[in-house]
TrEMBL record:
Residues 301-326 are annotated as: Disordered. This is SpoIIE family protein phosphatase. InterPro entries: HATPase_C_sf (IPR036890), HATPase_dom (IPR003594), PPM-type-like_dom_sf (IPR036457), PPM-type_phosphatase-like_dom (IPR001932), Ptase_RsbX (IPR039248). Residues 311-326 have a biased composition (Pro residues). SUPFAM superfamilies: ATPase domain of HSP90 chaperone/DNA topoisomerase II/histidine kinase, PP2C-like. SMART domains: PP2C_SIG. Residues 152-356 form the PPM-type phosphatase domain. It holds the Pfam family SpoIIE.
Length: 356
């Protein structure tokens, strides 16, 4: 499959029966073709999906595979998520020739060899495995990557159907003004909501380096003939995080302690009633994650800490953290974790997690 434009939505394949493994394989290959990964890229993506999905099918509970472009572009990612029983020994599972003996973790040696990056967190309550494939011209990625999901209403299921129209949208852009994020939640669902979300996204992408207040005003003008949207904008400058929002897109500061809510956006609808805009400046805290999500993620999620304890280190780190030191999930895993555990299936759902 070749797409005229790269896909922007997350594809979810629930691994709830054996044939779902084939659906995941096909979806990964199609995504790689749509992103124009050259050479063996589509087949590498298919093998990654097959290994991860087979592992979920044989050993995990409530498993799903999330497939999408990397939030900053330049490749794709596959994230396998489940609700247990966990991988008893992650480092052993990454070894070639590892035999699972009936436990989760089979095939991870092959995934490690094929993927450009591999991140794993596991405990008896669940496992997350993120594997990426970078485009040949992608630059080196030395900073912790952001994480994101954007799921349309009714996206769950392993029927292989293409995602429906989605009234949510997001963008993560590196600009001279700093890394800038837009999260958009258009009113309602379906094609008209998608039209509003895409109009807001286009207005943002025309010049994402503009001041946040100016960006919201530009999006307000662009949405006047649509049903309107709730929008949140976040920018990381050298010393601070700037935040401006209208409506119910939520900001959560997620660090080593309990998640804390950021400043709320005032009531209003971008495109209809634009309230007085305030740009908040928040200090940048090393190790903190700034999470933006629409109301398709249940707001009560922060009452259930998104942690897996003890964490399994990526294969590049030879020394695991001690079990007595629980840590939050890294941003690249936090968004799919929330989508899998705390999503409202009757609403479009978007979550974007940005490391500071």
């Amino acid at each position: 499959m070749t797409a005229a434009t790269p896909p922007r939505l997350t594809r979810q394949v629930r691994i709830d029966h054996h044939s779902a493994t084939h659906l995941a394989l096909v979806a990964a290959r199609e995504l790689a073709h749509a992103l124009r990964l050259p050479g063996a890229g589509p087949e590498r993506a298919a093998v990654l999906a097959s290994e991860l999905a087979t592992n979920l099918d044989k050993h995990a509970h409530d498993g799903a595979l999330y497939l999408q472009p990397l939030p900053l572009g330049g490749g794709l990612e596959l994230v396998a998520v489940d609700r247990g029983p966990g991988i008893p020994d992650v480092h052993a599972a990454l070894a070639d020739g590892f035999s699972t003996s009936g436990t989760l973790g089979g095939g991870l040696g092959a995934v490690r060899r094929i993927a450009d990056q591999l991140t794993i967190h596991s405990d008896p309550g669940g496992t997350l495995v993120r594997a990426t494939l970078a485009a040949p011209d992608a630059g080196p990625d030395t900073a912790p990557p952001p994480g994101a999901v954007c799921l349309p209403t009714g996206a769950e299921g392993a029927d292989g159907a293409d995602p429906a129209a989605c009234g949510d949208a997001f963008a993560v852009r590196d600009t001279p003004a700093g890394r800038t994020v837009a999260v958009i939640d258009a009113l309602g669902h379906g094609p008209e909501a998608e039209r509003a979300a895409l109009a807001a996204l286009a207005a943002f992408d025309a010049d994402p380096a503009l001041p946040l207040r100016t960006l919201l005003e530009r999006q307000h003008r662009a949405l006047r003939r649509t049903r309107g949207a709730a929008i949140a904008l976040l920018r990381l400058t050298e010393r601070a995080a700037e935040f401006a929002a209208v409506g119910n897109v939520r900001l959560v500061r997620f660090g080593l302690g309990r998640p804390r809510a950021g400043p709320p956006g005032p009531p209003g609808i971008v495109g209809y009633t634009l309230p007085r805009l305030t740009v908040h400046r928040l200090p940048r805290v090393p190790g903190e994650t700034l999470l933006l999500h629409t109301d398709g993620i249940h707001p009560d999620w922060s009452g259930h800490p998104a942690r897996l304890d003890p964490p399994a280190e990526p294969p590049t780190s030879p020394v695991p953290l001690p079990p007595t030191s629980p840590v939050p999930l890294p941003p690249a895993l936090l968004a799919p974790f929330l989508a899998h555990r705390h999503r409202r299936p009757r609403d479009d759902a978007t979550a974007v997690a940005i490391p500071t």
